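EI: anyone free to look at a 333-residue chain?
SC: sure, send it
EI:
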Amino acid sequence: MRAPLGYSVPMASDHQRIATLTDRTYVEGVYSIVNPQLAQTRTNKPYLKCMIRDASGEISARAWGFEEAQFETVIATGFVMLRGSTQAYQGQVQLIIEQMEAREVSGEDMLQLLPSTTKDIATMFARVAELLRSMAHPAMRALAEQYLSDERLMEDFRRAPAAMSVHHAWIGGLLEHTQQMMELADGMLVLYPALNRDIVLFSIFAHDLGKTVELDWERGFNYTTEGQLIGHVVRGAIWLQIKAAQASRVERLPGETLRILQHILVSHHGLPEHGAAKVPATPEAVFVSMLDNLDAKTQASITAAKREFAGGGEWTDKVWALDTKVYRTDPLV
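SC: here you go
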């Protein structure tokens, strides 16, 4: 490996962790490529912009002079072998890619190339199941058991990310996001006794389950064909219809319960321009939608700030999900 003059070079056998990259570092290795997009400079020259990621974090990257004909080949596997160097730009470190090609990786290699939850998956899942089994109405518990007994779905639920890049974008992220929301709700519901606890807890559990088929995490984090054509909101509502029919053999949901649950699933994004099929129109639907937004945006800001890592400037790049840059410094530390 030969680095440009003045750039540090790692040991050839070492994987360079994203979290440790500093300004003017030569980078060579295999990484996950996230959200690749073709763009043009002000002089109409093509380039590729993307995020480069491993288990330790991610970095904004650019490949200048990148031709459109290369695009599909480079992103084919979700992982790339790249060579380039870092540089400071507006207080942040970014990666300028000089060479890049698609690379297949093994399951073992994937562990260091994809971020994973730092929390214990078995413990989180047990807590989700405990909260569901604490619901008061027998028909709601019967419905929950239809999901919990679906081994394939629950295995995917434990492993899936909650998003491609915005929040909880790591292995186990969907479970972590769901458990955090359920814990928040269970603690807050004592302040809102008019809300139905069973409806809220179950809806939180089910609201993003469709992401287990919307997202692919075997080749980096990307949308599946199912995700592109159907999406997790619609898939979740379809699954709910099926699971409720199965649960009715044990205990039928009373009255408009199924319709109310489906409404919460299709409205939890809040607004049509954010992906909601309907605007939340029950107290529980409003509560779940706001709680989802709270957890997603709070985690997005925490992830962007990266307070656990020194350096990088006081401000992040603009976080598009928040429509702002994030001030990183904790003034009391």
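EI: Strands lie at 26-40, 46-54, 57-64, 79-89, 92-102, 215-216, 222-223.
SC: 👍
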